[in-house]
Every structure is written in structure tokens, then in C-alpha cells.
């Protein structure tokens, strides 16, 4: 919806669609970070009373898995701010540019990934 409305956000973001955030595992995150990706912003379904995940409990599973991401980043000697998980719904499209820009400000503050270029 944000793209259809032609909203503006950082040009340095690349969207990689996955069938469900619950299918993302820590190995993918660790591989991306060890190959020089500066940051990963994971956007998943909002769970709670009005949970509408097509894959039953995908975002809850992702939240559980990603709670351990700081340990993985510590092993790589990287800052935990480089990976962020945010719950959104389709009605939050107007907030998406702000979420992206806030994340990019944090990445610029942290600096480039030291593994970049290896």
C-alpha cells in the first residue's frame, strides 16, 4: 500500500519478500550479516487478539527465533541494533516510511558493517 500511494523512504532499502516471517531463521540472518549487510529490518504480522497470520503462528515463531539474534550478532562482534523486528498490519502502511527511516538513521549511527568487502 505504501508503494501504491508512492510514499517516500530511504533508497538504500531492499525488500526481500518471504512467504512468512516464521520461515526466516537465524542462519539466514547470520549469513547476511557475515557477508556485509549493514542491517536487517524484519516486518511481520501483528499478533494478539485479532491475529490474522496465514501460516497460523508465523510471526510468533519469528519473534521467538529472533529473540536470540543478539547472541548471534555478539558471536559476529556486531551491534544488536543492526537487526530489528517490527509488527505491522496492512493498515499501518502510512507508518512504514517512518519505521524505515528510523531504522536507517540507527544504521547510519552504528556505521557500515565491518564485514563489508570481504
Report Rg.
15 Å
Strand content: 5-15%
Give a count of the beta strands, DSSP E runs of length 2 or more: 2
Mean pLDDT value? 85
What can you see in these coordinates?
With 118 residues, the chain is an alpha+beta fold. It has one domain. The protein is built from 4 helices and 2 strands, in the order αβααβα. The protein has helices at 26-34, 58-66, 69-75, 96-110, and strands at residues 40-45, 83-88. The chain has a two-stranded parallel ribbon.
Quick rundown:
The protein is 34% helix and 10% strand.
What keyword list fits this structure?
118 residues, 4 helices, globular, 10% strand, two-stranded parallel sheet, 34% helix, single chain, alpha+beta
